[in-house]
Design brief:
With 156 residues, this protein is of the alpha+beta class. The chain is 24% helix and 40% strand. The chain is built from three helices and eleven strands, in the order E-E-E-H-E-E-E-E-H-E-E-E-E-H. It has helices spanning 54-68, 106-119, 148-155, and strands spanning 6-11, 19-27, 41-46, 72-73, 80-85, 88-95, 98-103, 122-127, 130-131, 134-139, 142-146. The strands form three sheets. A six-stranded antiparallel beta sheet has the order 4-5-6-7-1-8, with helices on one face. The chain has a three-stranded antiparallel beta sheet with strand order 9-10-11. A two-stranded antiparallel ribbon has the order 2-3. The two termini are 34 Å apart.
Length: 156
């Protein structure tokens, strides 16, 4: 895309970053039960894996961090965030805890990654090679997308 590099990131323990907007209780976890208070429960303040509210809480936290950087959420696809001020363009795509970012200014892209890394435990995976099982190969005319590895694995 215009010769822009595509960078990929992964957020570790993404669902643990979300704050709960409603009151949620859970039983005391095994190994942490207070023997003198066996009928007590725990009130959760943060989302945990397995909680039905966790994915939404995570996305709300991520969206807040991204929009804080003046990105706008696409009306056509809520997982796409767009930064367009003057001649500076940047696109950030979210799929659960996987992020793909591209833009016309590599320094700006790096700064966005750096900012997100201060808020979340983000692993910069470098240039995009695979995303959701699709191999991404840059060519001189654009991107070549293939599922060659997936097909090969199916045939073996």
């Amino acid at each position: 895309m215009h010769g822009w590099s595509l960078r990929q990131m992964d957020v570790h323990n993404a669902f643990l970053h979300g704050d709960l907007s409603e009151t949620v209780f859970m039983l005391q976890p095994p190994g942490f039960k207070d023997p003198s208070k066996l009928n007590h429960v725990c009130r959760l303040k943060k989302a945990i894996y397995g909680l039905k509210q966790a994915p939404r809480a995570w996305f709300i936290a991520l969206k807040a961090a991204i929009t804080h950087l003046h990105f706008l959420q696409s009306k056509a696809d809520p997982s796409l965030f767009i930064y367009s001020i003057d001649s500076l363009k940047c696109y950030l795509l979210v799929y659960i805890d996987d992020l793909v970012i591209t833009g016309n200014n590599p320094v700006f892209v790096t700064n966005v990654i750096r900012h997100l890394s201060t808020r979340f435990h983000v692993k910069d995976l470098g240039d995009l090679h695979f995303f959701l099982g699709i191999e991404v190969i840059p060519t001189h005319v654009g991107l070549f997308l293939t599922q060659h590895k997936y097909i090969h694995d199916l045939l073996l």
